[in-house]
Specification:
Blueprint lengths: L2 H11 L7 H8 L4 H26 L2 H7 L4 H7 L6 H13 L3 E4 L2 E4 L2 H6 L5 H27 L10 H7 L4 H11 L7 E5 L5 H9 L4 E6 L2 H13 L6 E5 L11 E7 L10 H10 L1 E12 L6 H11 L10 H10 L2 E8 L6 E8 L6
Parallel strand pairs: 3-4, 3-6, 4-5, 6-7
Antiparallel strand pairs: 1-2, 7-9, 8-9
Helix pairs in contact: 1-3, 3-8, 8-9, 8-14, 10-11, 13-15
The structure holds S-adenosylmethionine.
The site of S-adenosylmethionine has 21 residues, from helix 9 and strand 4.
Length: 362
């Protein structure tokens, strides 16, 4: 029994006949007991719940149980667990103990409202955001001092690109508003999207302008493959080409009316951002526009601050942008009419738009 459970047991037992009053009194009056109880309730149990829910959502168990209650064998089959039923049961039973699941007539079912909501298809981005927090934000908070001591940095391989692509869609409302404000509807548009993730924003632009065609590129192979699958599912393969590629080495003619970078300017080190923006401009036809959307520093949002910290500890990318800096970088990269717009007052999410007035330098 761990100390937290011991402290809880003692607290519960003081109402019962006390068999060994001295031992109980010793533990109850231990000055660490109140701290242990506070930690258990306010810190540890919520952390256990968050970890369990992130794992249950990420593995598809929540979605499975949302369809119907399942017994151990069918969950094992779903999770492709070949034979170790006992340990799977131990993990599921913790879900019951935490109040997320219920077990009746040999079947697990969803119990908590949070589990039920996270299981809904429409909340997939929130479920992925929870997984991102547990898998990527928690390790930087946990390991920062050790990483500094050993000179260790996170790399792009430490991120699961498909989880990040899904969790990015939690910002959908902001990005769609920025697209609404920027996208030309009356004429055909050739769009180049850099770091397309799931491709959801290319789809949105294609729906707004039925004459839009697009090339969407993502650095990560598995992300680009998923975006290509999505385009096929959305019936957009005749209008949207997906490619795995790196903005820094793309070889394209200045043929696009709009280049977009959503939620990825911080994947480039600050010192390279002018060059990256110049490169984006080199793909634009004269008069073409660039749209960069990003969470920015300085809004007092804790999640954004921890994301910023993650990139401080990574061997690629850099800090989230600051409004004035990114505007200046776009101007330095040759854009004119550069504007930063805060999509919703008080929220540190900005859209930066600029126009390519002159042909790119060779
Ligand atoms: C946080 S995700 C955002 C995905 C999508 N734009 C969205 O907002 O949902 C950032 C994406 O940018 C991609 N990316 C990062 N650096 C890139 C580069 N140099 N060239 C192309 N894509 C890049 C990553 O692979 C990742 O999928």
């Amino acid at each position: 029994m761990d100390l937290l459970s011991l402290a809880r047991t003692v607290k519960e037992r003081v109402e019962e006949p006390i068999t060994d009053a001295l031992a109980v009194a010793k533990i109850v009056t231990d000055p660490r007991t109140p701290l242990l109880l506070t930690l258990s309730t306010l810190v540890v149990t919520p952390l256990y719940r968050a970890s369990f829910l992130a794992s249950a959502a990420g593995s598809g168990v929540l979605q499975c149980l949302a369809v119907r209650p399942c017994d151990l064998d069918s969950l094992a089959e779903h999770l492709e667990v070949p034979d170790d039923r006992q340990r799977l049961r131990a993990w599921l039973d913790i879900g019951v103990r935490l109040g997320e699941f219920d077990m009746r007539e040999g079947c697990y079912r969803l119990k908590s409202n949070t589990a039920k909501l996270l299981a809904q298809v429409g909340n997939d981005a929130v479920a992925a955001a929870l997984e991102e927090i547990m898998r990527f934000h928690v390790p930087v908070l946990l390991d920062a001092p050790r990483m500094l001591r050993h000179g260790h940095r996170f790399s792009l391989d430490d991120q699961d690109g498909t989880v990040i692509a899904r969790s990015s869609l939690a910002l959908q409302g902001f990005v769609q508003e920025a697209i609404d404000q920027t996208l030309e509807r009356a004429t055909p548009v050739r769009l180049l999207e850099i770091g397309c993730g799931t491709g959801a924003y290319v789809r949105y632009a294609a729906e707004l302008n039925p004459r839009l065609t697009a090339l969407a590129v993502d650095l990560q192979e598995e992300v680009a493959a998923q975006a290509a699958d999505n385009m096929a599912q959305w019936g957009l393969t005749d209008r949207v080409e997906i490619r795995q590629g790196d903005l820094r080495t793309l070889d394209l003619q200045p043929q696009f009316d709009l280049v977009t970078l959503h939620n990825n300017i911080y994947y480039f080190p600050e010192s390279e951002r002018v060059e990256v923006l110049e490169r984006a401009r080199s793909f634009l036809a004269p008069g073409g526009r660039l749209l960069v959307t990003s969470s920015c520093q300085g809004g007092g949002n804790l999640g954004i601050d921890v994301l910023n910290l993650w990139f401080e500890y990574a061997d690629f990318g850099g800090p989230l942008p600051q409004e004035d800096e990114l505007v200046a970088q776009m101007e330095k990269a040759g854009f004119v009419d550069v504007r930063a717009t805060q999509i919703i007052p008080t929220q540190p999410f900005l859209a930066f738009a600029g126009t390519n007035a002159r042909p790119a330098t060779p």
